[in-house]
Amino acid sequence: MFFYIVENIINSVNENFGDIFENSINSLNHIINDEEINILHEFRKLRNKYVHKDLNQYFFENDGILYSLSEDDTALKIYELYSEKIYNILAKIIKSSYL
User: Fold this and answer.
1) Which residues are paired to 68 by β-bridges?
2) Which end of the chain, N or C, is surrounded by fewer C-beta atoms within 10 Å?
3) Residue 56, Ramachandran bin (φ over 0: left; ψ between -120 and 50: alpha; else beta)
4) Could you tell me which residue, 97 or 64, shows the higher pLDDT?
5) CA distances (Å), 5 to each of 2, 12, 50, 52, 87, in order?
6) Is 86 exposed, middle or buried (0-12, 13-18, 19+ CB in 10 A)?
7) How far is CA 92 from CA 45, 80, 97, 98, in A?
8) Structural domain of 60
9) In angstroms, how far is the first alpha carbon of the chain from the final one?
10) Which pLDDT score, from 0 to 100, does residue 87 have?
11) What is the per-residue pLDDT for 63?
12) How many whole angstroms separate alpha carbon 86 and alpha carbon 59?
């Protein structure tokens, strides 16, 4: 659910729901810096893996530890690692769209 919320917010700020998520992220380069764009791309790559039917073949690496995407604990770990960063980026994007 977190993946879809992030994608929908970014697309709504861009006022474009027809574009691919990668292009939507890249179009934010006048609002957010390269590091923030890279964080969103890392997040996008994880989202892409999650939409596949066979999650057993995909893993997420953090600090040299591989986490299977089929495990609920992995989703919690991803949320723990990304939620604050993503929240701050989204707040910056949304704030700039109202200025």
Assistant:
1) 59
2) C
3) alpha
4) 64
5) 5, 10, 14, 18, 11
6) buried
7) 21, 20, 9, 10
8) 2-97
9) 28
10) 95
11) 93
12) 21
Structure tokens at 55: 């999650």
In the block, tokens 């970014």 appear at 10
Domain total for the chain? 1
Distance, in Å, from the CA atom of 40 to the CA atom of 34, rounded to the nearest integer, reads 10
- Please give the sequence-ordered ranges of beta strands (E in DSSP) within the chain, or none if there are none: 59-62, 65-68
Tens of pLDDT, residue by residue over 25-47, are: 999 999 999 999 999 999 999 88
Phi, psi for residue 59 in degrees, rounded to 5: -135, 160
Query: How much is the pLDDT for 12?
Result: 85
What are the helix (H) ranges across 1-99?
Answer: 2-14, 21-26, 34-50, 72-97
Cα distance between residue 59 and residue 49, in whole Å: 9
